[in-house]
Amino acid sequence: MLLGVNHKTAPVEIRERLAFTNDPGAPYRALQIIPGCKEFSFLSTCNRVEVLFVAEEGEATERRIRDFLFAGSMSYEEAGKYVYLHCGQAAITHLFRVGASLDSMIIGEPQILGQLKEAYRNAMERNCTGVILNRLMHKAFSAAKRIRTETAIGSSAVSISYAAVELAKKIFGNLNNKRAMLAGAGEMAELAAQHLVNQGVEEVVVANRTFERAVNLARCFNGRAVAFDELVPQLAHVDILISSTGAPDLILRKDDLKPIMRQRRNRPLLLIDIAVPRDLDPKLNDLENVYLYSIDDLANVVEINKAERDKEALRAEAIVAEETIKFMGWLGNMEITPTIVAIRRKAEEIRAGELERSLAGLANLSDQEKKSLDKMTAAIVNKLLHHPIIYLKGNGDGEELPQRLAAARRMFGLDNES
């Protein structure tokens, strides 16, 4: 099952209630103690928060996970307006679409796959995943790689950071002789800096709470770093601010900027807030010659290569459907009867093949002797398979069924072809 909230189902003011920034381990600790949540991974980005999980009692577990996500900020019923829940095949398809960037605000942007891999790594290191999610996540990664290889969806891809720079170009015409400041020194800030430099911006200034990180990022683009406390005074000298910090509260308010705008003699100032929770006070838009855009506004900015991306997206959707069917086949085999049938079938194919090759060199045997050899080899195979099959059907000394099935399927090489 997959429970989540994203940019399509909830505005930024709802999503920022679900932003987990202070203690990255807290969500895992909370989810691990939810009864019935056997395996899970947790993904939190600017545009989505999702929990992918395996549960014995899906409905009860989903209710507890939803309550955890909203942490009492709204009722279960009210939260239902913003969440989506996918089960079984629909959950698999959704995960594959997310990894392939088909569900992103900007189709084809490459960041989400890295974020999904990090989410899986965090869950795996905390022993939150098991047989099913381990295989599912790896299949999501390979499906995304296949889509990148077999389609051109990545060739015209753009990120949120790129969208922010495109918005700046739309406001100013071009970015020559413009100065830009980045609040935050993470991946989104780095991408924004790269796009700004590519568009000819005169200077990039980086402000970050960890000054060393600001220095390192600024050095990459021949820019300069400033202490985070200098952010507001520096706004007197720049034309663009792109903010993407992980701060839990606003870093710039209307009253902070009022005196700066007088100092600027009301030269236009573009503020782009791509942080969740928001960095910039929405009331900043009330100031004259201040143009504030949030992350949701960027959804309407970039239309470059849209037709081409949509065409490639159709090809990518077909690959997602194909990979989903393949995984559903594997999942269907993660039951006792299909696995036992597959083991017996493989053993019989090996026995029959080896017997046929042996009999070809024993031309003098009578029909009765050949039947005796056939019976003997069949009996040997049955005796060899007896204990593995008892192991599968039994309680496995406390080992859960998915683990027993996975071990047996690996041992007999049943999934090597998939």
Shape: elongated
Whole-number average pLDDT? 88
Residue ranges: pLDDT <50 for 5 or more in a row? none
**CA(first)-CA(last) distance:** 23 Å
Number of strands: 10
**What radius of gyration results from the CA coordinates?**
28 Å
Global structural class = alpha/beta
Element string (H = helix, E = strand): EHHEEHHEHHHHEHEHEHEHEEHHHH
Question: How does CATH name the architecture of the largest domain?
Answer: 2-Layer Sandwich
CATH topology of the largest domain: Beta Polymerase, domain 2
CATH C-level class of the largest domain:
Alpha Beta
User: Into which percentage range does the β-strand content fall?
Assistant: 5-15%
CATH homologous superfamily caption of the largest domain: Glutamyl-tRNA reductase, N-terminal domain
Going across the biggest sheet, name each strand in turn: 7-6-5-8-9-10
Layout of strands and helices, then pairs:
Layout: E1 2-6, H1 12-15, H2 26-32, E2 37-44, E3 48-55, H3 58-70, H4 76-79, E4 84-86, H5 89-99, H6 111-125, H7 131-150, H8 160-172, E5 179-183, H9 187-198, E6 203-208, H10 211-220, E7 224-227, H11 231-234, E8 240-243, H12 254-263, E9 269-273, E10 290-294, H13 306-333, H14 336-360, H15 367-393, H16 401-411
Parallel strand pairs: 5-6, 5-8, 6-7, 8-9, 9-10
Antiparallel strand pairs: 1-3, 1-4, 2-3
Helix pairs in contact: 5-7, 5-13, 6-7, 7-13, 8-9, 14-15
